[in-house]
Design a protein that fits this description.
28 helices; five-stranded parallel β-sheet; nine-stranded mixed β-sheet
């Protein structure tokens, strides 16, 4: 069970042993022998370790020089091989200059002096910093371990206590904790301070820590010496405590594609070529001549070199399901080609006969959502697939604050929806920033256009390499009166605009989404001076202001409104009281080298869409221009419909939503549908496609893979190397375990084994 440190655990003996500095590495298998003719799997799985020559296996060229350094120690529950005694034997061997492989039948660790690991350029998963044993209770033993490790109890972010485990169970518990440190993963308990984890809540998420603070974990085992109850942590128990700290290595990325998440890409210049490719893949998959993972890897490697006009992506959760997807696609292809349309299946297979993201069409637009799209436990699994990205974001700034982790990942599901406006704004920008870095840095995708819904404009400037240090806005947003008082909370800007004194009653503010045309609402606004048309978005609008007047307006309009129950005066006339403050707030220093290939489109000054241009159309950008653009959008009615039309007129065709959930994609689809129905604007009714990168209620990585599939078919220039690298690791794991079949019994077990990769 997880606990927190109490005061008595902070009392430690005066004399303790020196801190340990033992590097710990999780191995992918307990047996690493391999007799295959190809590259040894460890060269793919743990290249640093392979190059070191520390492990003894047949194909290692360094075996004769280093095999005498390696000592193998087995932990089990028979004889005199308990975990505690074998760990002491391990420490003794390490002090004598040896490297130890400590194993059970299921798990295996490599242990060595931290200095040796550094000298050999090996990034350890974790460090064993202390080990203390006693019979005076866990509190004293743990205090001694903390003192030995020279760690302040306040720096321990996870404390685990286990009673009466077998030696193999103790080893498994330590192994699990090392894996959590190395994968930067917090595994939630079913009960958390009396709050039960709900069935729809994430079972784990990223292990956030305060900025620049390493993760430290403590684990203690107690064993009854007599007939003492297991719940009585008294002197009648033998107790052992260990202190573990994160290393510089982390678990290598989980593969985005695997046996349960298949993706194939077929490309050609003609319909006949695509049909032939589908037929060829069908034959290959049904012949059973190759392993499915190898076929998938080879398919993606071949596609990486392709420059064909068209591309089909096939996705499924199994081989039989994939064959069904393939047959359905082959049947639909002639119709889609003749109509120059697109076809998408629920599983994610996709084809378009009119690619909109090619280098020639230059139609790719990144769309950034506004406040309120973030949700509890968002992105809870992404870090397992992109650990280097999360590591990079941690080094750049305070990732925990950037994503408002304390609220977003709170075990109380009521907390995220109740976040204050400023916190919602921070988490919204943070989620957009993370997903942008993912697409840009991991998959080499660069948009031609960028635009934002409301405060999504700030996300746009923060995410695409324009502001030099967007992290400074986190603390400002939390404490600046602009967000805490003026347009939220007590609404001081509204009180000023309405000429209210401090003795007047508090304002009861609300906003409502209503299905109505903007013109019909505008006609009634003079009768309700404290109600405002805040947002125009396709077939719906948002009115905001005095709740009583908003409800009266809806009644006279003859419409029902959906209350947002959120206090924000953005996009209303009173916000203009804060225009100068908004400009000052968003006047941020810019990068030395600014992106030149992206056109940044603002919702400001959209009265004449025909003459509307990107903010940097002239090639010029400065802090004042950007800040004024944000302020103009912030303080005026947001016409999202006009913003999309403006983007289309400038050439945007493929809209990719970068942020939590997919609300903007839904709005854009409605706008396009209305345009096609009215056919009043030929430019606005041109081909358009929306692509969400995230969706509330869906699996993060599956939604991302579907998005990549659409972008591939739209021929967006990108790299599928992350998919190929993941498959290479999956194949290597398969080879290693096929060579040692007694270690594990099925592929799913193999694929869950952790891999080593160092931080950069």
């Amino acid at each position: 069970m997880n606990q927190t440190l109490n005061a008595s655990q902070q009392q430690a003996p005066q004399k303790v042993a020196m801190p340990l500095r033992i590097a710990l590495l999780v191995l992918p298998s307990t047996e690493l022998s391999f007799n295959g003719s190809s590259t040894h799997p460890l060269e793919v799985l743990q290249p640093e370790l392979y190059r070191s020559g520390l492990l003894s296996f047949e194909t290692n060229p360094f075996e004769t020089a280093t095999s005498n350094l390696l000592k193998k120690i087995k932990v089990d529950d028979f004889g005199d091989t308990s975990f505690e005694k074998q760990l002491h034997a391990t420490v003794d061997a390490i002090e004598n200059g040896q490297v130890v492989q400590l194993s059970t039948e299921q798990h295996s660790l490599l242990m060595m002096p931290a200095l040796k690991a550094a000298q050999m350029r090996i990034h350890p998963h974790a460090l064993l910093c202390a080990m203390q044993k006693g019979e005076s209770g866990i509190e004293q033993t743990l205090a001694g371990a903390l003192n030995q490790a020279k760690r302040d109890p306040a720096t321990v972010s996870k404390l685990v206590t286990q009673d009466n485990l077998t030696s193999e169970q103790q080893f498994a518990a330590v192994y699990q904790l090392i894996t959590e440190l190395a994968s930067r993963t917090t595994v939630r308990d079913e009960m958390n301070a009396g709050v039960e984890l709900g069935p729809k809540q994430a079972k784990s998420h990223y292990w956030f820590t305060p900025n620049h603070q390493a993760r430290v974990a403590a684990i203690s085992f107690s064993t009854s010496l007599g007939n003492t109850s297991t719940s009585n942590l008294s002197s009648d128990q033998s107790c052992t405590s260990y202190i573990l700290a994160q290393g510089t290595g982390f678990i290598a990325p989980k593969s985005i594609v695997n046996h349960q998440r298949l993706q194939f890409v077929l490309s050609a210049d003609t319909q006949a070529g695509l049909l032939a490719a589908l037929d060829g893949l069908n034959t290959q998959l049904t012949s059973n001549s190759q392993d499915l993972l190898t076929v998938m890897r080879n398919n993606l490697v071949a596609f990486e070199k392709s420059s064909a006009i068209y591309a089909i992506t096939l996705q499924a959760s199994s081989l039989p399901a994939l064959l069904q997807e393939l047959n359905v696609m082959a049947g639909m292809l002639p119709k889609v080609m003749s109509e120059k349309g697109q076809f998408k299946t629920p599983a994610g297979s996709y084809f378009t006969a009119e690619p909109l993201g090619t280098k020639q069409s230059s139609g790719l637009a990144f769309v950034y959502p506004g406040v309120g799209t973030v949700y509890g436990d968002m992105f809870s699994e992404l870090h397992r697939y992109f650990p280097s990205l999360y590591s990079k974001l941690e080094r750049e700034g305070d990732l925990k604050s950037m994503l408002q982790a304390d609220a977003i990942y709170n075990v109380d599901a009521k907390i995220p929806p109740a976040m204050p406006l400023g916190d919602l704004a921070i988490a919204g920008v943070g989620s957009s920033y993370l997903l942008t870095q993912l697409l840009v840095n991991e998959f080499n995708i660069t948009p031609n256009f960028a635009l934002g819904y409301s405060m999504g404009e700030a996300s746009m400037w923060a995410s695409l390499g324009v502001w030099s240090n967007p992290h400074t806005l986190i603390e400002k947003t939390q404490h600046d009166p602009l967000f805490t008082r003026a347009i939220s909370g007590p609404l001081t800007a509204v009180r000023k605009a309405w000429q209210l004194s401090h003795t007047d009653a508090d304002i009861v503010w609300n906003s409502f989404v209503v299905r109505a045309e903007a013109e019909s609402i505008e006609a009634l606004l003079p009768e309700f001076p404290h109600a405002y048309l805040a947002i125009i978005q396709g077939d719906t609008c948002v009115i905001a202001g005095c709740e009583t007047q908003c409800r009266a307006l809806l009644t006279q309009l003859g419409k029902r409104g959906i209350a947002a129950n959120r206090v924000t005066a953005m996009h209303t006339a009173p916000a203009m009281e804060e225009h100068a403050n908004v400009v000052e707030f968003y006047t941020q220093p810019l990068q030395t080298a600014l992106p030149t290939e992206i056109k940044f489109i603002s919702a400001a000054n959209l009265t004449d869409v025909d003459s509307h241009q990107a903010v940097n159309e002239s090639g010029f950008l400065d802090s004042q221009l950007i800040a004024t653009s944000i302020a103009d959008t912030f303080c005026n009615t947001l016409n999202f419909t006009a913003l999309i039309h403006s983007a289309q007129k400038q050439g945007a065709k493929l809209f990719v939503e970068l942020g939590a959930d997919r609300q903007n994609c839904t709005l854009i689809d409605k706008i396009v549908k209305l345009d096609h129905a009215s056919e009043t604007n030929t430019s606005a009714t041109a081909s358009v496609c929306t692509v969400p990168v995230n969706a509330k209620g869906g699996e993060d990585i599956t939604t991302l893979l579907k998005a990549l599939g659409q972008l591939i078919s739209h021929r967006v220039p990108l790299s599928v190397q992350p998919l190929i690298d993941g498959l290479n690791r999956e194949i290597a794991l398969q080879q290693l375990h096929d060579a040692n079949p007694r270690v594990a019994s099925n592929t799913e077990t193999h694929m869950s084994k952790p891999l080593l990769q160092g931080e950069v």
